[in-house]
Amino acid sequence: MSAALSNSEAERLRAFERQGHDALATSYHAFFAAVTALATSPLLDAVHLRPGIGLLDVATGPGALAAEAANRGARPVGIDLSPQMIELARRLHPAIDFREADVERLPFADDTFDAVVCAFGLGHFPRPEVAVAECVRTLLPGGRVAFSWWDDPSRQRIQGIFRDAIAEIGVSMPPDVPQGHDVYRFSNTGEFLRLLKGAGLTEVTVIEHATIYSVSDTDTLWRGGLGSLVLTGAAIRQQDKPTQDLIRSAFERRASIYRSPDGLRLPVAFKIGSGRQPT
């Protein structure tokens, strides 16, 4: 289990995440939103979504999950740390209430929502225990919460190919990211279960999902990844040109094994952790 970050380290990571997602909001929407959308239906199913319920979408990004909840008759509110993500979400989905907010300090009273969902936010939160407790605080008694997070990079190959190439060349993560922060902590089912049970939830489950996602070619994947993956992209961009070229070469070699007549067929795996607020 990762050690808790100090207050100063948590603020440093929070600033890194805000600035990174602000810079990549548009390119993230263009490439990676379709990947994260693979978890939309499992997340909404996990909270037993039905027409009329109030739903909070945490780390809403461009707002696609909140929009799908609205399409199914829910009353969603989306929050995100990134002002540029919120601006984009409002532009794409003007009928939905989107607000800039930090998951550790949600601007809602206790017992406000029937359900809370979060698509792939956990590994970006500086203090996940605090974040989950704050989400649970806003739940009505009997309400449900569901989080998605990526499986191990060996099974989640969009990020995994980049991470393997970076590791092969031996470059370090950006200095703005505290050494104690483990982005893949909740790829471990046991850690995911402990997090949710520690928040006092009942009926806790973690379900694995796996599929194939197609990308037209390695150049599209390279550009899409650099324009979407905040931590991984920063690790590559901080290198000099010769080192970036070495990473690109390693990336191309590793991506080529997934080539098919229809482009790259990439394994994608993630987990849905969910639970219920006691009545």
Automatic annotation (TrEMBL):
The keyword Transferase applies. InterPro entries: Methyltransf_11, SAM-dependent_MTases_sf. One of its GO terms (molecular function) is S-adenosylmethionine-dependent methyltransferase activity. It holds the Pfam family Methyltransf_11. Keywords: Methyltransferase, Transferase. One of its GO terms (biological process) is methylation. Residues 56-147 form the Methyltransferase type domain. It comes from the Bacteria. This is Methyltransferase domain-containing protein. It comes from Bradyrhizobium erythrophlei.
